[in-house]
Amino acid sequence: MSLLVEGTSGSGLRLGASGRGTKQADVRAYNERLLLSLIRRHGSLTKAETSRLTGLSAQAISVITRRLEDDGLLQRGDVLRGKIGQPSTPMALAEDGAFSFGVKIGRRSVELVLIDFVGQVRYSLREAYAWPLPDAVIGFIRHGVSSILEILSASEQARIAGLGIASPFELWQWEEGVGAPAGAMASWRSTDLVQAMDADLPFPVYLQNDATAACGAEFIFGSGHEFPNYLYLFIGFFIGGGVVLNGGVFTGPSGNAGAIGSFPLSDVDGNAVQLIDVASAAILEARIRAAGLDPSPMWNEADGWTRFADFIDGWIDDIAPYLAKAILGSCSVIDFSAIILDGGFPDDVRSRLVVATRKALGNLNLSGIIAPHIVEGTVGHQARAIGGACLPLFDKFMLASTPTLNEAI
């Protein structure tokens, strides 16, 4: 069987059977991405395990592994003894193998992180605002990247894969929702974030919808690998989502797949609403403000949510039924095996919301569908920024989806 590698790194390399020849460099690049993707998914693998998963010969695995180890992308674990046959050495991703910057542009704050090759946040900077404006956001990114670069060694700087920006699309449409004056955010219409940052940085810049980016973070560094198909929900100031199908993040032709905030519903009075109107943290903020309190600690302080415990229980009780209805509607279209729920709130709030949503789903008529598992996300409140940082790593080192054995041989 001859092999054909199709596509570019940006769209994910595809391997399939073909009567045509292929460039050796393409096969090499594909196999390297395949090994890195599998090792990332499993944590570590021996050469024998990698050979079994890919269908590649032990000799080929040795060559590829040695090359990736020489490049600093893989590191050896402790030798495994006590099993039949020769002792084996598992290979894992090297923490310092690559670094990546990620930016989250939110309705109330902007955040910059630098993560390493295994997803650990090495540095993090954050700035709050009343609403996002292009000049302030771009200035924050420039200053933050420059500050972090000054801390890194020359060898670490050489291993930076790029900068990924996770941002809501068409920010100018969110003026009313964030309480900005009319026209205050109009300058976003003419702002090209990628172009603005490309001019300043020696590495590539990427842009993706913020909720889809968060979904990518859960897929790569969280529990997403446990489910081949799932709907991801992230509740920030507004709710958003992402979709994973057949073991890969599905973005759709416009990059907006999983835009769960637009899901149509009826409120308790029978009025037509969207999920974003009835299941977002903006509702909680509005209730706190209506009580004469300042809600800004929710966005400005690490323990800010604990100040508003009296409001959180009611908020969870109110939004869980709407989440359940949106989940039911989504599962009637795609047979999702799981729903992963995360958000910009503390872990205990996430746990309580998952429990309430499971209960609310159980109260609905589930005839005709198999109820999905509703589980907690594991990346947490920095998922969008980490998801942004995933974009360069994904583009340079990973496959769009990890093939099964039949696809890999």
Q: Could you walk me through the main structural features you see in this protein, from its secondary elements to its overall organization?
A:
The structure is a single chain. This protein folds into three domains: 3-93, Arc Repressor Mutant, subunit A; 97-212 and 386-396, Nucleotidyltransferase, domain 5; 223-378, Nucleotidyltransferase, domain 5, CATH 3.30.420. Helices cover 39% and strands 20% of the residues. The protein is built from 15 helices and 16 strands. The strands form five sheets. Strands 7-6-5-8-9 form a five-stranded mixed sheet, sandwiched between helices. It has a five-stranded mixed sheet with strand order 12-11-10-15-16, with helices on both faces. Strands 1-2 form a two-stranded antiparallel sheet. Helix 8 (210-221) crosses helix 14 and helix 12 packs across helix 13. The protein is globular and about 65 Å long. The N and C termini lie close together (9 Å).
Compute the separation of the termini in Å. 9 Å
| Rg value | 22 Å
List the total number of helices: 15
Major sheet strand order: 7-6-5-8-9
Give the second-level CATH assignment, the architecture of the largest domain.
Answer: 2-Layer Sandwich
Content-based structural category: alpha/beta
CATH topology of the largest domain: Nucleotidyltransferase, domain 5
Q: What's the total number of strands?
A: 16
User: What is the CATH C-level name of the largest domain?
Assistant: Alpha Beta
How many domains is the backbone divided into?
3
Mean pLDDT: 88
Q: Could you state the CATH homologous superfamily of the largest domain?
A: ATPase, nucleotide binding domain
The share of residues in extended strands comes to 15-25%
| Global morphology | globular
The level of helicity is 25-40%
